[in-house]
Amino acid sequence: MGESRKKIPVSRSTLLGLKVTLHATLQISKMLYMECNYEYLMTATLSQDPLERFFSVMRHSCGGNDHPDPKMFAQVYRLASCFSLVRPPKGCNVSGKDLLKTLLGAQGILTSPNKDKEIWLQNIDIMVESSEPLLEGSLIDEDHDYNEAVTSDAVQSYIAGYIVRKLRKTTKCVNCLQALQMKAGDGRQLQRNDVINKMDLYGGLIYASNELFDLTKQLEKCVLRTISKTLTNVHTISQISRELKKEVLLRVGCFQHEKELTVKIIDFYVVIRSYFLAKSENKRYEVAKIKTKANRKNAKLLS
Ligand SMILES: [Zn+2]
Description:
This protein is mostly helical. The chain is 67% helix and 0% strand. The protein has 15 helices and no strands. α9 packs across α13 (210-229), α13 crosses α14 (236-244) and α13 packs parallel to α15. The protein is extended and about 80 Å long. It starts with a helix and ends with a helix. The mean pLDDT is 82. Bound molecules: zinc ion (ZN). Zinc ion (ZN) binds at residues 173, 175-176, 253-254, 256-257.
């Protein structure tokens, strides 16, 4: 060891630095390969600067302290992590105090974030199990469905096919899979599959079985009934589940997994449907905002 050090014209600390760098590089590449599916890594692009900058920010935040300890670092790190959250964004209408309150309030910590999801799944369980509607649909519903939008069968069939594709990844049972889809030869004959037929030039689209198609139609009816009554808001999902309770839902799947699979389909359908609703609502909100801005500008010019 002593002799070999003499041969290499580098200092002990440089050598140690090289060792540390190599070790870190190997660990990073291993992690990226195993966990992030990297195929190759250009080590030249690895940079330590952001990390150094981060530590320098941490040191600066402590004030003039030459001997920071791990405890202090942890504290400052936590403060820095929530700093951008605590600082009210430009033009926001929530004052600093309220913002802190919502961030530091303990309500959210005590209830598990998955609780809502659990309740929702339990709800679907109950709906699927019952053979009668849980809620009575009022006559008003039937009389006033003229402002309901209608989703065409072709689109519905396409969505049902999409659901099959998603479920195929997690469903192992052969009988269940058979219950979900239809042979392409039979599917092509049906009028509801027009859209799929036209798009199938690119291949890979799936024809949903009649059972699944009918179930999604039932679900869609409930979604449309919900949005015909109110605008999309935080309670939309619970309102949809209220509408669902008025129906006796069909079941899809083999005898053994029927319930499980149906719950999965309902959950999946309502979630993607809500996602689309939220997206279109956001779009509408954005348009309204731009319009207001333009109106303000015009008002200024006139006065
Ligand atoms: Zn099955």
